[in-house]
Design a protein that fits this description.
3 helices; alpha+beta; about 30% strand
């Protein structure tokens, strides 16, 4: 069901309008052999969060969906994903390679909060 919602709430978007961004972080995600997912600030390389196996379901499903789009198009994983809190409060996840973006508040407060914690821990002020 989450995958169906992810598919319905995404669309291609133009470049991110930085004048509309209040907070942002460029993110990289990597999988460890034990199933842990590591979210890192792409600009600094610092680890933001470790998501243990069985935890962080919404982040895992969302990022696997975004990564799957890149794989289908034979795109690299070298370009980070963009997570931005917009001036109007919306939380936006964007892939600058595919142009795909997702308003995360559409998935409810607890799911949005999972990504909000990533931006708060690893943010880059505009």
């Amino acid at each position: 069901m989450v995958l169906a919602l992810v598919g319905r709430q995404t669309h291609s978007a133009p470049e991110l309008d930085v004048s509309a961004v209040a907070q942002s972080v460029d993110l990289r995600f990597s999988d460890l052999p034990d199933g842990t997912v590591v979210a890192s600030n792409a600009a600094t390389g610092s680890e933001i969060e470790r998501i243990a196996p069985g935890a962080g379901g919404f982040i895992r499903v969302t990022m696997r969906s975004f990564a799957g789009d890149r794989m289908k198009r034979d795109m690299t994983d070298e370009v980070p994903f963009q997570l931005a809190r917009m001036n109007d409060g919306d939380l936006l996840l964007r892939d600058p390679l595919t142009g795909r973006s997702m308003l995360l508040n559409a998935f409810g407060p607890s799911n949005e909060r999972a990504f909000a914690q990533l931006i708060e821990k690893g943010e880059t002020r505009q």
